[in-house]
Amino acid sequence: MFEPVNDLEKSLVNAATHPSARPQFYRDLLDADIYIVNRGENNPNLPDHGYQPGSELRIQQLKKGDQLVNRAYLAQVHYPENDEKPHLLIGIDAQGDWEKVIGDAGMIASNVLEKGELIDFMRLDDSGISQYLINKTRPFYEKS
C-alpha cells in the first residue's frame, strides 16, 4: 500500500478517498513545486516501467508563476428556456492563452463535479455578468 511521505501526497490520498477534499488537493497542487521527467530524444524506445542507467532525461519544472489566472469567481446560473436545472459558471480574469486556461480549469472541474453536472467558463470582460461577479461577489481564487 502507498504511504504518503509529504503534505502533497497526503492531500492526494485524502482527495482520492473523499471527493470533498479534492478542491483542497488542487489548491495544494497549485502551490507545490512540480517537476516533469521526460525521456530524452536519444532513447524514445525505453519501456514505460523505468529508465536505464545512462538514459537521457529532460526535466521541466512547473512554476507557480506560470499560472495565467489572476482571479476566478463562482456563480450558479439558470436559463429555464435552455436548461432543465441550474449549473455552475466560473468567471475567470486571466491573461495569455485562454484555451490553456479553460483546458486546465475543465480538467480540474471534471474531477470534482458529479456525473452529469454542467459548468460554463467565461472570460471576464465589460459585460453585465462579468461586472456582477466582480462587483457583487468575492473571488474563490486570487493569484498571490
Description:
The protein is α+β, with helices and mostly antiparallel strands and 144 residues long. It has four helices and six strands. It has helices at residues 7-17, 22-31, 98-112, 128-136, and strands at 34-39, 57-62, 69-77, 87-94, 119-123, 141-142. A four-stranded mixed sheet has the order 5-4-3-6, with helices on both faces. The protein has a two-stranded antiparallel sheet with strand order 1-2. β4, α3 and β5 form a beta-alpha-beta unit. It is globular and about 60 Å long. The mean pLDDT is 79.
Q: What profile does the largest beta sheet have?
A: 4 strands, mixed
Strand content: 25-35%
Question: What is the count of distinct domains?
Answer: 2
Class per helix and strand makeup:
alpha+beta
Strand tally is: 6
The mean pLDDT is: 79
Distance between the termini: 36 Å
- Overall 3D form: globular
Q: Can you give the helix content as a percent range? A: 25-40%
Over all CA atoms, what is the radius of gyration? 19 Å
Strand order of the largest sheet: 5-4-3-6
TL;DR?
The protein is an alpha+beta fold and 144 residues long. It has helices spanning 7-17, 22-31, 98-112, 128-136; strands at 34-39, 57-62, 69-77, 87-94, 119-123, 141-142. The protein folds into two domains: 7-65, no CATH class; 67-142, no CATH class.
